[in-house]
Amino acid sequence: MRNQRAFQKIRMNSRQEKPRNKGLTEIRGPYYAVMGTNYLRDILETMGDYVDILKFSGGSFTLYPEDKLRELLDLAHEYDVKVSTGGFMETVLTQGSEAVDHYLDECKRLGFDIIEISTGFITMPTDDIVRLVEKVQKKGLLAKPEIGVQFGAGGTNTAEQNEAEGITDPSQAIEVGKRCLDAGAYMLMIESEGITESVNEWRTEIATQFARELGTENVMFEAADPDVFEWYIKNYGPEVNVFVDHSQIVQLEVLRRGIWGTKDLWGRVITFNEDESSTAG
What we know:
This protein is of the alpha/beta class. It contains ten helices and eight strands. Helices cover 38% and strands 11% of the residues.
């Protein structure tokens, strides 16, 4: 039986129960910090109701002993949390088609749910990206292509380096995203570099274009900085899909629930339900 939170008579914005299809929170798992089952269990026992996806960044899962990796994936599934590979596919792609087949088979065998398909450091024709989406889906896995406007994204470039590189036309990324969705992609990850990360000024008009032309229900914005996810909630409401660091779950959820906020958000993020009692959920 699901444990009820305390303070039931204090109103707050309602949230879909898991599995949700909006207001998804994806958290970064092992990368900046080591994560074992004790660490993850502490997170999920307390805040698991607000976590939808656990993402392994930087290919970190390839370093784990298999039994320990399985324990992490099993624990996530125990709390109805999907597990994503992160963008390691772009490393695998450089090793050829046999490596891709091996990678997908291993991900399926181990229990991963989502295969992120990023191309931050490689260039691929759109047709090839679409074929890869279809290949992932045929394996019974969820394809999550990453799109963005900054080449070299994921490399922790400085704003000056990114400015020198320049950004691509957002319309090009949108076209790739639409074709991937048509091919059955689960969702699109929006890379933050070139938009709100490693830039001298935020390019929020690009985020707005992505949201408008792809639909907020189809995208997840990378927002691993409080100022960034505050902006997304302020502009798209508490049910926008965002990716944050696991240390930011609580800060994000209190904003989604409208029970706390910043100077810009206090008292502004609310939902409306015909049944007022549902706001206490």
